[in-house]
Design brief:
GO terms for molecular function: GTP binding; GTPase activity; ribosome binding. Helix 4 links the parallel strand 4 and strand 5. The protein is an alpha/beta fold. It is about 30% helix and about 25% strand. It has 4 helices and 5 strands, in the order βααββαβαβ. A 5-stranded mixed beta sheet has the order 2-3-1-4-5, with helices on both faces. The chain has a single domain, classed as 3-Layer(aba) Sandwich (Rossmann fold).
């Protein structure tokens, strides 16, 4: 089990969608945008409100692939309780930081939760092309 923790608009849902795309859980003929954000308000505002879980199979064509459980969590600080509950069910996190905005306070708060839970933390810098 793993989760992606990031500040709002740092690319968490986009990264989750790309992971789904690479593990063949998404049909490439369909829209590539905001798969895990299924509520209309989430899609309208571009934020994650409710957490979702999905299984990723890698390599997808293998008869016995590795199974990863991605728990997509909200990025907004108002959902700290939901995020902390999700992290308690994880073994590791991807700590996603927007290169143009840097580390935000809520990202540090989520980092501290992950650290206190002894989760494996994989730091990722996003939007380096900007």
């Amino acid at each position: 089990n793993f989760s992606i923790i990031a500040h709002v608009d740092h690319g968490k849902s986009t990264l989750a969608d790309r992971l789904l795309e690479k593990t063949n859980l998404k049909n490439s003929s369909k829209s590539l945008e905001r798969v895990l954000d299924s509520l209309s308000l989430e899609q309208e505002k571009g934020i994650t409100i409710k957490l979702n879980a999905v299984q990723l199979y890698y390599p997808p064509e293998d008869s016995e692939p590795y199974i990863f459980n991605l728990i997509d969590t909200p990025g907004h600080v108002d959902f700290m309780y939901e995020v902390s509950r999700s992290l308690a069910a994880c073994e590791g996190v991807i700590l996603l930081v927007d290169a143009t905005k840097g580390i935000q306070a809520q990202t540090l708060a989520y980092y501290e939760i992950a650290k206190n839970l002894n989760l494996k933390i994989l730091p990722v810098i996003n939007k380096i092309d900007l």
